[in-house]
Amino acid sequence: MGRLFTKLTTFFTSIRSKIAFYPTVISLGGFILTFIMKSLENSGISKRLQEVLPQLVLEDGDTALTILSACIGGLISMMVFSFSMVMLLLSQASSNFSPRLLPGLISDRIHQIILGTYLATILYNIIVLLGIEPDDNTYALPGLSILLGIILTIMCLCAFIYFIHNISQSIQINNILDTIYQKSMDRLERTIAKEEEKDSELIENFPNTEKWFAYSVPKSGYFQNISLKNIMDIAEAKDTRLYICQPKGLFVLKNVPFLFSEKELDEESVDAVLSNINFARGELVEDNYILAFKQMTEIAVKAMSPGVNDPGTAINAIDYLTELFSLRLQKRDSGVLVRDGKTPLKIATVDFEELLYYTMASLRRYCSSDPIIVQKLVRMLRYLKEHDCKEPHYKEVIARELEILLKAAEASLPSEIDKQRLSGPTA
Fold first, then answer.
1. CATH code assigned to 198-280
2. 335 with 349: CB under 8 angstroms?
3. DSSP code per residue over 189-243
4. In what order do the strands lie in the sheet with 342-347?
């Protein structure tokens, strides 16, 4: 049952980021609504509504057809325009900032819900329109269904106004960076909170895994999600300890060691473990906070490219990176999980040194010739160096990166004044 629940959760997680997910679900709801209204019309609800509020019920079939036809045509035009705006947003974000932002923008539920509302209302009005027979004098119009179709159309007009406002906000880089930061911060804080409950002595005494039994994955993909509870249950049932040697977010190749076990596992047990791990071709910040560092670094690098030349965006990205790194300092590098005084599972993590190096390596390459950006990076590293750390070697890593940055800037900056400012306390 646990494995089935994990698979269903993994399936939902993978499809909810698709742009067609919410529109499909909501349009299905609009389709079902038509049958509900048809059942109510058969019970004579429109006649009773006409007796109570006759001004709300249409009595002329031609008028009803005209109104519904206008609603359908207008909604189709709005849906096409809204979809075009979404495509424009994705195109601009890809060209101006980073293609890695696209999965997060596509999974924006607000845009999907609004498009789904348009589609559901169109389907509803079309089916209601097909049930109108204007030439039959004895035929009673589905007044309540028509009224509901008009109300839904008005709601779509309000949603369209909100859509224009939201799309104009979504394309602004400050809002994009803030969204990435908030999602990654929430994920990282949850990870740190779980670590506080662990026994540090047990974590440090996790055995060496070099001589353990190695197993590989049947197909390649990005290591995205994992059901920790189910895998630890399997490890305890087999009286073994497991080690996953690839960090979340990295691309795992098939036929390459991925899972290590202290005791030899049969094929069924290996399949059971791997079935609780989701391998996908894409990933979201909500699932892996490391992706936020990659996205913000790419935004800063793209902003400093000659084609874009936007130092202000690079400065904003570095500000958010500073906050994320300061929070990352509160997390251990160890990926050992503790339960009931045992350590049944360890997952490789992207340690702080590697994370800082890859971030700074990209920024040094493209930003070392800009004195303002270099000063911003120096301030970031000096701020992190004075910040409280979970592990003492973090400060050594920061000091080393700061020294490398100053040497690269000294070689790239021709002005002596710029070099002096870098060595001063205000840099």
1. 3.90.1170.30
2. yes
3. HHHHHHHHTS-HHHHHTPPP-TTSEEEE-SS-EEEEEE-HHHHHHHHHHTT--EE
4. 213-216, 257-261, 242-244, 342-347, 336-339
Phi-psi domain of 255 (left: phi exceeds 0; alpha: psi -120 through 50; beta: other): left
Q: pLDDT (tens digit, 9 = 90+) per residue, 385-406?
A: 888 888 888 899 999 998 888 8
Q: How far is residue 249's CA from residue 231's CA, in Å, rounded to a whole number? A: 19
Tokens 């353990």 correspond to 212
Tokens of 14: 């993978």
- Specify the residue for token string 């002005």: 415
Contact between residue 252 and residue 279 where contact means Cβ atoms under 8 Å apart = yes
Strand partners, 242: 261, 345
| CB neighbours of residue 338 within 10 Å | 20
Domain boundaries defined on the chain: 2-171, 178-194+289-332+350-423, 198-280
* pTM of structure: 0.73
Question: 336 has which bridge partners?
Answer: 346
Q: Kindly report, residue by residue over 139-168, the tens digit of the pLDDT.
A: 567 888 888 899 999 999 999 999 888 887
Tell me how far apart the alpha carbons of residues 230 and 272 are, in angstroms, rounded to a whole number: 9
Structure-token match 């400065």, residue found: 315
| 213, 261 contact by CB (below 8 A) | yes
Rounded-to-integer distance, Cα 204 and Cα 346, Å = 11
